[in-house]
Design goal:
The chain contains 8 helices and 2 strands, in the order ααααββαααα. The chain has 197 residues and is mainly α. It has a two-stranded antiparallel ribbon. Helices cover 53% and strands 4% of the residues. The protein has one domain: Four Helix Bundle (Hemerythrin (Met), subunit A) (Up-down Bundle). It comes from Kitasatospora acidiphila. Keywords: Isomerase, Pyruvate. InterPro entries: DinB/YfiT-like, Maleyloyr_isom, MDMPI_metal-binding. Pfam families: MDMPI_N (PF11716).
């Protein structure tokens, strides 16, 4: 099967990365103190584990662009994922996302090749993968914490193109993306966990 996806421009990818990190960050900021251990739709991971993993992934971006491999530093690999309420989780996310964005916006950064766990790939393609992951995990986080689960249409369209899905003449693009990613949303609880927990 041939890949008919058009190559991404660096400007488009950087703009959508900004949008994806901002969207995820708004949900991180909205996590209630008693929601960090709540399960998400992503393999049953807790909210804390999901946020911690994506924060760590953004924090690795500058090193990957500088030529490092995908391995975590030993001290970070041994650190537990945050599953307890933490006052710094939102700030940690902002710091990691800003560092990643600065590295990605450096001259010619997206023209480089990075070494990931899946092998070498163009940095622009790696950033496109980050956008797709952030888009889907924004829904995971929002759904698990009773926040707005609606995703930006532009990000949904981008993620569908990245998946190689054929365009639909009609239907809900977000529902299609979630289905392709194995998400089967149950109705949101009408109860606020922070109030009732």
């Amino acid at each position: 099967m041939t890949d008919d996806r058009a190559p991404h421009s660096a400007a488009e990818v950087l703009r959508l990365y900004d949008e994806a990190t901002a969207s995820f960050g708004r949900r991180v900021a909205g996590v209630a103190r008693n929601q960090w251990a709540a399960p998400t739709a992503y393999h049953g991971w807790s909210v804390g584990r999901l946020v911690g993993a994506l924060t760590a992934e953004q924090a690795r971006v500058p090193a990957l662009l500088a030529g490092a491999g995908p391995e975590l530093p030993a001290e970070r690999a041994a650190a537990p994922e945050p599953t307890e309420p933490t006052a710094t989780a939102a700030a940690d996310w902002v710091r990691a996302a800003e560092a990643a964005r600065t590295a990605l916006a450096a001259p010619h950064a997206l023209a480089r090749t990075v070494r990931t766990a899946d092998g070498e790939r163009p940095a622009v393609a790696y950033c496109a993968r980050l956008i797709t992951e952030l888009t889907v995990h924004t829904w995971d986080l929002a759904h698990a914490t009773c926040q707005d689960p609606h995703l930006a249409p532009e990000l949904v369209e981008f993620a569908l193109r990245e998946s190689g899905a054929l365009p639909l003449a009609a239907g809900d693009p977000q529902a299609r993306l979630l289905g392709l990613c194995g998400r089967h949303p149950a109705p949101l609880s009408a109860l606020d966990p922070e109030v009732t927990g």
